[in-house]
Amino acid sequence: MKRGRGYNDYCISLDVDWAPDWCIEEIAGVLDEEKVKATWFVTHLTPAIKKFIFSNSLFEVGIHPNFFPGSTQGSTVDEIMANLKGIAPQAVSVRTHGLFQSSPLLRTMREQYKILFDCSLFLLMSENLAPHEIFFSDSGKGLIRIPCFWDDDLGMYEMHPRHTLNDPRFNVQGLKVLDFHPIHILLNSENMHAYEKCKKIKKDIAALQRKEIEHLINKRQGTRTFFQAIVKKLSDNKSSRTISEVGLAWKKSRGNQR
Q: What 8-state DSSP symbol labels residue 148?
C-alpha cells in the first residue's frame, strides 16, 4: 500500500447519530447482503445495534462521542468516553460528533482509552489522502489519523452537490473514506430539508416511525442511490475494509518508520 499517489481505496463508515432501530437494521441489512465491510461509529446502545452491528463479523464498532455542551453521553470528557467504552469496550476507532478535536483530547483518547484510529479530520474530496500518525510521547504509541474524504451531510452544503460516482471528483488518487448517516440513506437526502422536517415531526429522531417520514423520501439521486452504488462497487471488487483494517495495513506498509 503506497502513501498518497497510488493509494486509491474506498472505505465506508457510518455515524449512527441516534438513528431509529428500524433504520439501522435496514442499512446493516444492505451491507450484509452484499458482504461489504464498514465501520459503525455508535452513539448509544439499542437492540438493533446489538443484533445487527455488534454480532456481524463484517462490521467494526467505533465510537462517536459528543463533547459539546448538553451532550446526553455525559458532562465531561471522562464521563463521555467511559460511557461509550462501556458500550463498546472493543472500540479502537473514533469519530467525534461535529468533528470536535483538540490536542489534549486526542492524547486522552489515545493514552487513557486506547483509541488507535481517529477519523475526525474532514478534507472534502482532497487528492492523495492517506493515514498519518501523531505521537504525544516517546512511548512509541501513536494515534493514526485517517482523514474523511466525503460526508453525506457536510457534502450537502457544497454549491453543487452530486451523488454519483460519475462525478470525477470521486475518482481522484488517494484514500477515500465515505461517511454516511443512516437517516440520510433512508431519506435519500440530496440536501438537509427533509432531515429538518423530520426533526419537526419528532425532536427525538430515534422515535421516528417509517410511516411518519415516507412522504419525505427523495425520489431522485441522493444519499441512498450513492450509498447503493458504492456498496455495489465494493461488493463487485471484493475490496471493502474497515477503518482499523485500513490503518493497520498502512502501519504495516510503513514498517518501523516513525
A: B
Q: How many domains does the chain have?
A: 1
Within a domain: 117:
yes
CATH of the domain at 235: 3.20.20.370
What pLDDT tens digit does each residue of the chain (258 aa) get? 444 433 678 999 999 999 999 999 999 999 999 999 999 999 999 999 999 999 999 999 999 999 999 999 999 999 999 999 999 999 999 999 999 999 999 999 999 999 999 999 999 999 999 999 999 988 778 999 999 999 999 888 876 777 888 888 898 999 999 999 999 999 999 999 999 999 999 999 999 999 999 999 999 999 999 999 999 999 999 999 999 999 999 999 887 566
User: 143: which strand partners?
Assistant: 134
Q: How many helices (H) and strands (E) does the chain have?
A: 10, 9
Tell me if residue 10 falls in helix, strand or coil.
Answer: strand
Distances 20 to 36, 59, 68, 170, 222 between C-alpha atoms, Å:
22, 19, 22, 29, 20
Q: Which amino acid is at 49?
A: I
For residue 21, give its domain range: 10-253
CA distance linking residue 106 with residue 154, whole number of Å: 22
Q: How far apart are CA 11 and CA 137, in angstroms?
A: 30
- CB proximity list for 244: less than 8 A, separation 6 or greater: 39, 60, 92, 93, 116, 117
CA 178 to each of CA 61, 135, 153, 226, 227: distance values in angstroms, whole numbers, following the listed order? 16, 26, 11, 10, 9
- Dihedral sign, Cα of residue 46, residue 47, residue 51, residue 55: positive
Question: Comparing C-alpha atoms, which of 207, 146, 247 is closest to residue 20?
Answer: 207
